[in-house]
Design a protein that fits this description.
Shape: elongated
Number of strands: 13
Number of helices: 20
Helix content: 40-55%
Strand content: 15-25%
Largest sheet: 7 strands, parallel
Structural class: alpha/beta
Radius of gyration: 23 Å
Amino acid sequence: MKLKRVFIITGDASGDLHASHVIKQFQKKYPAVEIRAIGGSSMAATGVSIFHDQRQLGAFGMGVLTAIPSHYRLGARLLKFLQTEWIPDLVLMVDYGIFNLWLAPKIKAMGIPVVYFIPPQIWASRRGRIKQIQKGVDKVCCIFPFATAISEEAGVSPVFVGHPVAAALLPAPTRAAFCRKFGLDCDRPIIGLFPGSRRGEVKSLLPSMLSAIPLISEKMSVRPQFILAQSDAVPDELVVSILGKYSALLAQYDFTRMLHANYAILALSRTSIVASGTVTLEAALYQTPVVIIYQLSKIAQYLFKRFSYVQYVGLPNLLIPGAKAFLPELIMSHIPAESIAAAVEPFLSDTASYSHARDSMKHIKKMMEVNAPASENVVNALIQYFDDQDSRVCVSSEAKSNLEVSKIAAQWKDLRLFGKG
C-alpha cells in the first residue's frame, strides 16, 4: 500500500514556511499524495487544502491564557475530523511544540502514525518533554546531527534531515558587485547590524548597536562601513523613528540601511552584531564571526540559568561545545555600547580569536552538510517510514474509521493543553 494521505500541522510563520517546502517536494516527487493541513499563507500558496488558517489562532507568545481557548477548540475539531471524515496515513507535525505535543498522543492513539519535523529542543531545556515525545511521536526528523542520539536514547526513531536554513542560504555575491550596486567602498570593511525580526527586539537592541558605532570606529585604523540589515517583518516607521533619534551621530559615520539584502550583508561583512536567533547559524554557514546580543530581564536571566541545560544561546556555540564560547554573547537586561565594542574588537583584525571563530564555523558548515535539502529528506523519510510500517502491519482505513466514537469523546473530556515537564 502506498502513502496516499498526509495531514500537516504547524502554527507559526517559520513552521508554515518550512512545511510549504515539504509540500513542494511532495508535489514534485509524489504528486498523487493528497495533503491537507493547518497552516498559513506559504502552505496555502502551494494549493493544498487548508483545514484551518493558523493566522486565526492566538499565538502563545502573545499570552498563554488568551491562546488556550482557540487551540482547544481547534484540537477537538481536528481530532473529530481525522477520526471520522478524512483519515490520513500519517500526520506530520512541524515545530510549534506546545500545541503539537498536546495533540500527538491523541492522534497516535487513533492508530495514525505521527512524525515530527523540527521538534522542541529538548537538549536545551524542558527535558520533561521527552516523555511527551515518547508517548505521541513515532519518528523524529532532527535538524541537528547530535539530536539523533538524544532521540535514540529516548526510544524514538530519529533521522537527521539537515537544517532548513542550510538549503535556504543564497550564494554570496561578489564583493565588487555588491559594493558597486550600493555605492560602497570595496577596500573598506563592512560591519553588519542585525537587530532582529521582532518589534520588541529592534526597540531594545538597535539603540545599543547604534551607540556602539563611534566606539567601534575608534578601534579601527580604516574607516568602517556600517550596514543595518532591516527585516521585512519590522515596521519601517519603527526603524525610521529609532534612527531619527541618532541622526546627528550617524551623520558622522558611513551608515546605510538596507532591506532584502540580509544574506549578502552577512556573507560580506568583516563581522556583525546580531540578535540571538537563526541568523547566528546563517553567520556560521557563511563563516562570518559575530557578536550575539539579546536583552533579557533579570528574572528571565535567572529562569534561563535555572531551567536551561545549556550554557549559551547562540546555535554556533551550542554546536561546538567548549569551556568558552567562540562567539561572544551579551545576554543582559541592559547592553552597554561599551560592552558591544569590547566584544567586537577581537574580530576587527586577524587575531587568534578571529581565526578560531572562522575555523569553528568551517567545522559547523561541514557538520551541517546533507545530501539534499531538509525538505526533500523529510519527504524521503516519510515515504521510507510508511513503507517500513506497511511491510510489518497493514492497518486499513476501514479499521481506523471503526474506532469507537466514545473513546474519542472520552479523550476530549480529558483534554490537557500542557503536558508534564
